[in-house]
Amino acid sequence: MFLLIGLLTQACELATGSPTPTAEEPSTSAPGPNGTEAPGGSPVGSPTSEPAFDPASVRVTLRRVLGGLDRPTAVTASGDGSGRLFVLEQPGRIRIVRDGRLLDRPFLDIRSLVSCCAERGLLGLAFPPDFNPAGGTFFINYTDANGDTVVAAVSVDGGDEDLADRASLRPILHVDQPFANHNGGGLAFGPDGELYIGMGDGGSGGDPQGNGQRLDTLLGKILRIDVGGNTAAGQPYGIPSDNPFTEDAGRRPEIWAYGLRNPWRFSFDRETGDLWIGDVGQNRFEEIDRLRVGTVSGANLGWNIMEGSHCFGGAECSRTNLVLPIADYDHSAGDCAVIGGYVYRGSAFPALVGAYVFGDECSGTIRGLVAAGPDQQKAVVLLESDRVISSFGESDDGELYLTDLSSGELYQVSATGN
Q1: Angstrom distance (rounded) from CA 202 to CA 199
Q2: Where are the domains of the chain?
Q3: CA 5 to each of CA 49, 57, 265, 347: distance values in angstroms, whole numbers, following the listed order
Q4: pLDDT digits (tens, 9 = 90+) for 384-401
Q5: Element of type H or E holding 338
Q6: Which among 158, 146, 260, 173 has a CA at the least distance from the CA of 211?
Q7: pLDDT digits (tens, 9 = 90+) for 226-284
Q8: Fold that domain 6-417 belongs to in CATH
Q9: Among residues 228, 222, 263, 275, which one has the least CA distance to residue 244?
């Protein structure tokens, strides 16, 4: 049944084109290798004055928006005020939802370029903050015919905002994948305007190549690159000067954070700028990581030393210089693969404001955390659904949606106060 992420629970080194719920241990942060602060221009820290989300007082439900999608893997908005939602289909199409209706014509169709399915396919989509629907450029993440990761830039047809120009597709990053699983796939622009990319550890089980802790590979990382024009001649992207490994020979300058197993979905809190990551676990624990704005870059999130807040494999381990998750949960209730979500900042459901909402693919359970809460929390069950959750997404106005991989349906997340 679990067509996309079933392999995530099973136990290319370098990219080409590079420029020259219970956490038993307290979360500890250590300075990055360069002591680099988060990029300027972002909000400083999370607010402390907002009303605290109270999960005990919230009842979450799902409202079906539409069906007819082919293995949807992601949903997002373009941020251009059009109100459109863009839904990725795993075999290689992007569909548009306008005014609650699925348009017949795909926004983009690259099925001939994409290897599918299991954990491969068209996996990520991000629109830059200044996206212009009249000919602007957006970015996609997919696995190519060889199963390798490709991040590519694509432009919109200048004469039709509902149609991308397939001929304009331009790969900017290629990462060899040694195994078929743990491809990551998420893309998001941060509050700093840089493009962040989620990369899994390369697959198999237990990270046999040690990619999560290695800094000479892009696998097992969150990457951060500049696609806004600050690139050296002939290079497809630039390296932000405040990335943590820009001066270290043998370490990839694209790396922003490391020690990840498979950060399938991550997001930025649109109010605070905090980065939230759902990192899929091995056989025992799923984890949620929160990296606050203003903390150092170069965070080591622990894999494969840790699985969640626990030493991987049950052996003793050192937690020194590791950033432990804000929450983790085990597989005892039928869970198997965390689906990272969003901090709700919409206006339709006030009881949900300030909640980080996420799910699990296997159980369909939706959980919540207090976004402005402490560094150690227990996730609270908000809804036990029967959905095969593949992704959450955010509309232009901050409302939350999720996709059901198996049924091909799109749902809106709604809530009422008790």
Answers
A1: 8
A2: 6-417
A3: 38, 32, 12, 32
A4: 999 999 999 999 999 999
A5: strand 338-343
A6: 260
A7: 998 766 677 899 999 999 999 989 999 999 999 999 999 999 999 999 999 999 999 99
A8: Neuraminidase (2.120.10)
A9: 222
